[in-house]
Amino acid sequence: MNWHDEALNQVQSREDLADYLARMAEMVRSGDMPAENITADSLIDAAARWTRSMDGFFKNIVKEPVPEEPDWSMIAAIFHAALIYE
Hints:
The protein has one domain (13-84). It has helices at 6-9, 14-30, 40-62, 72-84. It is mainly α.
């Protein structure tokens, strides 16, 4: 998978994912990353909705089909998208 966001491309392991999520949380806290969904329930709901509709993202942005088997970077992408998905 080749993401347009280089930070997502760096997420290759469980430890990378944990580091990515910790950095993302700090960026949200500091105001360096905008977040539409800041409560747990809204974040989880947005993650579910984005996951259901990611076919369009992959078709139009990534230009690849949605992978059958997610990897660590896909999980990071779901969390990242959930912050801003409306």
